[in-house]
Design goal:
single chain; mainly beta; ten-stranded antiparallel β-sheet; seven-stranded antiparallel β-sheet
Length: 322
């Protein structure tokens, strides 16, 4: 197997902007490009293979035919465990929370959601909501929602480029306007909204809230883990920044200066280009054939069992695996 490019489904939520088209080259007839699902086998949005033998096939269909591409010794297709997005928040997202696996599988027939945010870009002074400022009771939480005082209770964090946030299930959160993030998450689309600024949806009605379910799953205290800047290690040909490692996924950012090698001997990995451009080759000999050209916005699936590939050029990538 060799790596291949993926084309993402695009979501046009009401808070989205145009940076995914203007700056990341995403193609869509939609006016708003709120999210691009760069790596997805979720039923609500399937990534599609671009180019090569499997051109036009959904990633889900490909992995059903080749389950060993997820894990080399995998003989039964069990689905892709993660979902990767680019999110452009022109306006504030709703204040929301995600359940854990047990609750989501019992009540929604889906996975729970642990997610990580990497701030690719943001406006000066941009901020997001990350848990509560202080511990509160369930009754106080309900009252704050009913009396429209919830925003007085939440913990606001000013953000900067390269900030990293781990959003664990039960953590109240919201991406603020003027922030563009790369999100690595469990493969899930379960979200419980508790506050949405009174906005009206496409149907002319206020968007649905999920207050009772949110009351059941929300942690009513400040988040246990603080956000951080990515840790930096300088290598000869790249700068490595470890973003996140949890039981669901591991993500690392590489700022490639000249050349960098990637291999996936046992389990798949995903490459998301967030800046610059480069070429991918199968080996380092002068006559090596170019496998593909990548640039800002390119999404690449590297199947398990792939021999070493070489990224030649100057670019920044987020490499994710499980």
């Amino acid at each position: 197997m060799t790596p291949f490019e993926l084309l993402p489904p695009i979501k046009d939520y009401i808070w989205g902007g145009t940076k995914l088209r203007d700056e990341f080259g995403k193609k869509s007839s939609l006016d708003r490009l709120a999210e691009s699902w760069e790596l997805s086998c979720h039923k609500d949005g399937l990534s599609v293979i671009s180019g090569g033998k499997y051109d036009g096939m959904t990633l889900e269909a490909f992995l059903k035919e080749h389950p060993e591409s997820i894990r080399k010794n995998c003989h039964v297709y069990e689905g892709l465990p993660i979902l990767i997005k680019l999110i452009d928040a022109k306006e504030d997202l709703s204040v929301q929370v995600h359940p854990d696996d047990e609750y989501a599988r019992k009540n929604e027939g889906d996975n729970g959601k642990t997610e990580m945010w990497y701030v690719v870009d943001c406006d000066e002074g941009a901020e997001l909501i990350y848990g509560f400022k202080e511990k509160i009771s369930k009754e106080e939480f309900r009252k704050a929602i009913e009396e429209n005082t919830l925003l007085d209770k939440v913990n606001r964090v000013k953000v900067h480029r390269r900030d990293v946030f781990l959003i664990e299930p039960g953590t109240l959160h919201a991406i603020g306007k003027g922030i563009l993030i790369a999100e690595i998450q469990q493969s899930s689309n379960v979200t419980y909204r508790v506050y949405d600024y009174g906005r009206i949806g496409a149907d002319g009605k206020p968007r649905e809230l999920h207050i009772e379910k949110a009351l059941e799953v929300t942690r009513l205290e400040p988040p246990p883990k603080k956000h951080s800047r990515s840790e930096i290690v300088r290598l000869p040909d790249a700068v490595c920044s470890s973003l996140c490692g949890c039981k669901y996924f591991s993500a690392t950012k590489y700022d490639i200066i000249t050349q960098f090698s990637v291999s996936a001997p046992e389990v798949f990995c995903h490459i998301l280009v967030i800046d610059g451009e480069a070429d991918i080759y199968s080996d380092i000999s002068p006559e090596s054939d170019e496998l593909m050209h990548i640039k800002k916005g390119t999404s690449v699936f590297v199947p398990a069992g792939t021999d070493t590939i070489y990224i030649k050029g100057r670019c920044s990538i987020i490499l994710t695996t499980t």
